[in-house]
Amino acid sequence: MIVKASAENVLASVQAAAAKGPPPVHLWNPPFCGDIDMRIARDGTWFHDGTPIGRPGLVRLFASILWREGDRYFLVTPVEKVGIRVDDAPFVAVDFAVQGTGRDQVLTFVTNVGDRVAAGPDQPLRMPRDAATGEPAPYILVRRNLDALIDRKSFYRLIDLGCHEDRDGQAWFGLWSGGVFFPLIPSADLP
């Protein structure tokens, strides 16, 4: 007997699984099956065979099984692991909310795939500079060693919340969140 799943049943199953959190990809160790023509652009757009994936639910599903080993990214299921390309970070932090002020401040970011993460000891902020241009690129750790690039509008809003703190005899400009000060740039390097 063949049973056809209705779109509503499939959607309900996916939503129920999503409510439980991301799949435990860190527990899976399937064989590597090769690379596929899938790429995540710096702006967070997912491509397959050079074509943008236009279904947000499908992108969220792929994002939930994303895994990083060193500098390589994979989509992992219990039975297979395939390599994909990521131009920068796999996610983009597209907005954030602020609760509290000063040392009691908490910054909660939302990504392009719907992850919500509060910056703190387990989800640090960092801001390396491009070696060639010196331009800052702010990131937040989202999950399982997967970062989100903080988009430009959010970055400018964050700068307005920044302050100067002394760390090991050097003044730093940075942000407080979750009881942690994240030094982003030496104060002396600011114009």
Structure described in brief:
This protein is of the alpha+beta class and 191 residues long.
Index terms:
191 residues, 6-stranded mixed β-sheet, 17% helix, elongated
Number of helices: 3
What would the average pLDDT be, to the nearest integer? 89
List unreliable stretches of 5+ residues.
1-7, 9-14
Q: How many beta-strand runs?
A: 15
Percent of residues in helices comes to 10-25%
What is the straight-line distance between the termini?
72 Å
Strand residue percentage: 35-45%
Q: Biggest sheet: strands, sense, closure?
A: 6 strands, mixed
Which term fits the overall shape?
elongated
Task: Kindly describe this structure.
There is one protein chain. With 191 residues, the protein is of the alpha+beta class. It has helices spanning 7-19, 56-64, 152-161; strands at residues 32-40, 46-48, 51-52, 66-69, 72-76, 81-86, 91-99, 106-111, 116-118, 125-126, 139-143, 146-150, 163-167, 170-177, 180-186. The chain has a six-stranded mixed sheet. The protein has a six-stranded mixed sheet with strand order 9-8-7-12-11-10. The longest helix is centred in the N-terminal third of the chain and has 13 residues, at 7-19.
